[in-house]
Design a protein that fits this description.
Layout (H helix, E strand, L loop, with lengths): L11 H6 L18 E5 L6 E6 L4 H5 L7 E2 L7
Antiparallel strand pairs: 1-2, 2-3
Amino acid sequence: MVYNSSCMGMTTHDLQDSTSPQVTLFKDPVYEDFGFSVSDGLYERGVYINRIRKGGPADLSTVLQPYDRILQVCVSF
């Protein structure tokens, strides 16, 4: 999972004004996932991190936490 300025209409200027962290995750080759699950917002619209698998890519990044809102996702091959 790659968060960057070229995705979904965001510009570099938008990201410079943002205090949201940017994270790059690589798929776990054993579990074939990024080590977290998502859910929709109950009281606010959006997609949120529900759980983080211990030892998975999201956990090892030390940036993502449960209840973080996902603002943008870009896929890179």
